[in-house]
Amino acid sequence: MSPKNVNQLVKIALDSKDMYAAVAVHEIAQGKDRVNLEKIFCNERRKILKLARWEHTPASVLKVLSQLHDEAVQLRIDKNPSTDGATLKQQYLEVGSSKLIDLIAQHSNASTEVLLEIASREDDLQIVKAVCTNPNSDDWILITVDQRFPTYFDREIAMHSNTPAALLETIYARGSAYIKAAVITHASCPSSILLKAAYESDVTILRHLAGNDRIAEGVLVRLAEHSDPSVRRVAASNPMLRGTELDKLARDKVVAVRRAVASRSDLSPSLLGYLAKDSYHWVRLWVARNPAMPSALLAVLAKDDHMDVRRAVARNPKCTKDLLKLLAQDDISWVRAAVAYQENAPVDLLMELQHDDDVDVLCGVANNAHTPQTVLQRLSESIKDDIRRGVILNSHASRKTLLPLLQDPYYLHRLLLVGNKALLDDDRWTMHDDSDQSVRFIVFRWFARKFMQ
Amino acid sequence: MKILVAVKEVAALDEDFELRDDGRDVDEDFLLYDLNEWDDFSLEEAMRIKEESDGEVEVIVVSVGPDRIEDSLRKCLAKGADRAIRVWDDTMEGSDSITIGNILAAVAKKEQPNMIFAGVQSSDEANASTGISLANKLGWPHAAVVAGLQYQANDSKAVISRELEGGLSQEVEIICPSVLTIQLGINTPRYASLRGIKQAAKITIEELSSSDLGMTEQEVGLNSAKSNVRRMYVPVKGMAEMIEGTPAEKAAKLIDIIKNFKGE
Question: ipTM value of the model?
Fold first, then answer.
């Protein structure tokens, strides 16, 4: 029977003396229980080092470990993505090593407050650079860095999403073509820069400008006719480019440009029809995937010589049942697999495909939400890991189908089952003493989170 | 029929490790232990022969090492090995790979197997010598880097394919009993079933000391080692360079590097 409350869960973790169970429930335990749990995972340096680097170690445990003042442990804590902002702040206040400060500056949970402190005080350029690339750095931090080290970090600041428009203008004015290109693609890039950029001659700048959906129509048309194919290619993907200019690019002599046109989702039926006849299969592949593709053209592409094009038809959400039946007979298993994964595949087709001998096809059948439970139950007995995993990942797999998979020999499969909504708490609890440490941890963690809510 | 499979628990390095105070090895706190990858394939090959046989085939795993290697031996038991033997006493500390081969040979003399499998090498020490020195001590035929095996229980000969340089394969007929060192990829190792793991937990691992094998203190450990580690260190880093800059700048630099490499 699964535990019914926090106390029961913590008691089981304490009785087990299992480090992974102890770590999983640490956050919800109180008082003496919490101290006793810490005794389980803090009694050997080897265990502590292991937990400090383990990516699943909860923040509350990392906080406890950070108080041990062991530099090897602190190094791992500062690298661990689960370490929270408060622990990082404490670490920053206590440590002097530039290696650790560099790690704190890079950490995705470092607070704006700590980053500002680092940006204002540190002189090590590598550390300041880490601050400039940290997404938590705000506009004021970036301005501070620019004031302290003008031009040094223009690249990083140009690419940072929080850089204010005024600073972007400063950087653009003094930057290289690459920096200007980065400024142009910035979401906060002011219109004044876009206007200036239109008069640049550098291809890198123009290429980045061509992709910006805020540039003037006339500029975009000019870029769509540029002599450099890389500029035309980016212009071809710009959603603001329409009409005759797009038609022209669909007929461009450079494949990469036609490919960029073909990958757009807003093509007219006539343009789709034109590109469906392109000599290059990658162009046909893109239009074959397009849900706006007329059925008659999809039927033509379903007989394409190139298997990737036929597969793209099979993946198209508008692919008809008749075409799916045709493609289910394809000689190439990769095409049949696309049919097996197709969410519109009818049950009778899936019943046929379950007898295929190709692993990819069977994985598709196992993943498909329309596959009957009896078929899923048969596939769950496959010796191939990928096929059994398909059943586990199938959102419509029933409890009865999944229950035997709780004994799956591959630990990752058992781990995936812990959070499956089709299972009952008592089902997932059967794995609490699993032979694999990750499975045990995830089971205890799942119950801990349930009780926390 | 018996197949003896020699296995080893190997150490993998943690990302940021520290060396021991004597500078001759990594501090044990920074090592992660697991069954040697090659040995998974050796065991699977033995299990394949066992499962394809109509007669009785006993698969015995043997390893030389302290208490902690029992985890790896239990993994082998969970995958279907019939028995596990751990050989150790304090005098064996510091044994080099040739000595380990000699110790395993003493186990083989005791067990009298019809075939012996070992991994080509261990991932931590990479001497690739234990299996071969074991064959040498026994005076048995041996083949290294076995990538394919045609052999059924009690056959007097086995046909093996060996990987050679330049994509060549060599087909060899070998008289049995023999010692084969098994290469990765020869088969697909199984996962241990949960039932197997539970059963393995109840099996007693046999323990042998040097005296049980009739070996003297002079024949094992540091006393017999013909090589020893003088120091361990991290060499000066090579010429790798991080490409810095904006995405467009990185792409341009990468193109330059490729063009330069191609001599354009």
Answer: 0.83
